[in-house]
Amino acid sequence: PRPHPTVRVRPLTCTETRRGDQQVVHSLGDGAVHVSAARHDATFGFSAVFDAGASQEAVFEGSGMRQLVELAADGFSCTVFAFGQTGSGKTYTLMGPLAQSETQPASPALLGLMQRSFTCLLEQSRSRASDLALSASYLEIYNEQIRDLLSPGPPCALPLRWSKTRGFYVENQLSVEFESLETIVGLLLQGSQRRRTSAHALNRHSSRSHALLTIHVRSRAGWWGPKHHPPVWALQAKQGTLCFVDLAGSERVKETGSSGELSVEANSINRSLLALGHCISLLAKPRGKRTHIPYRDSKLTRLLARSLGGSGITLMVACISPSSRCLSETLSTLHYASRARRVTTRP
């Protein structure tokens, strides 16, 4: 199968409206999105396009996220990642409002793909006769260092290893078992509050790291062995994963007004996103014409190697701004998502 890129167009912000920015992105229906501005007139096709009026529930149901949860419960390796310019709505799409906490939960209607997927997965766990064991790990990649967002104490860098059986993996990361919605949402909010964010000219809550929350789903499905006399009850173990990747936003340092540490962070973010884009471009080529895929160019591409071009099933959510001022970044994101449509995997 191929990844299923979907596009979400956020509303114009109050600042953009006051500034007089024009809306240059329009949904045409049936998965088509049109960009019209001076010297630019282009139409792109995707699995689905969600305009500014789309609810969080509509994005969950229309993107195929529910099917992805079911596949993870069946033992497949599934990934959803949100990408796009800084301030385009990636974290909101995945998590919902930034202001939520354990003591101040978000309105149910505003909950993002993550919380809705947790609910769906726990329903799967209760409805299946098989024994599903659920656990979660939560990491961030900040300035090319991998840090555990669930471990107590100040975050410290964790080593990234490679093995023939596991591929790339993070050594010593904490994995926490959970059985209730309250527990996993608590872990999500706890980890998100430890994640690096900063304010700059384009976004008051800009994510300065890539975050990866992975749900591990272990199931033990029982069956009767028909060839045995008497029949034997056997157990077959399966392990699926559901990984949510909230990529830090691409940005132009000149437009954000970043300097010092913020500028170093931006350069690190842009380098890893460039490495990701390069891998996707090469994976989009026909198998016979592919050269070496440089997964080792960044920590991000190493961790996403299996999801991008190997045995995984991937949902991509491209988040864009409709503002004329963001035109070049919007076109870049749409081209990025279009290339991703041509990647094939073998789950």
TrEMBL record:
A Gene Ontology biological process term: microtubule-based movement
InterPro entries: Kinesin-like_fam, Kinesin_motor_CS, Kinesin_motor_dom, Kinesin_motor_dom_sf, P-loop_NTPase
Entry keywords, A to Z: ATP-binding, Cytoplasm, Cytoskeleton, Microtubule, Motor protein, Nucleotide-binding
Source superkingdom: Eukaryota
Gene Ontology molecular function, alphabetical: ATP binding; microtubule binding; microtubule motor activity
Residues the entry annotates as binding ATP: G84, Q85, T86, G87, S88, G89, K90, T91
Entry's localization field: Cytoplasm, Cytoskeleton
PANTHER family: CHROMOSOME-ASSOCIATED KINESIN KIF4A-RELATED, KINESIN-LIKE PROTEIN
Family: Belongs to the TRAFAC class myosin-kinesin ATPase superfamily. Kinesin family.
Protein name per UniProt: Kinesin-like protein
Gene: Kif12
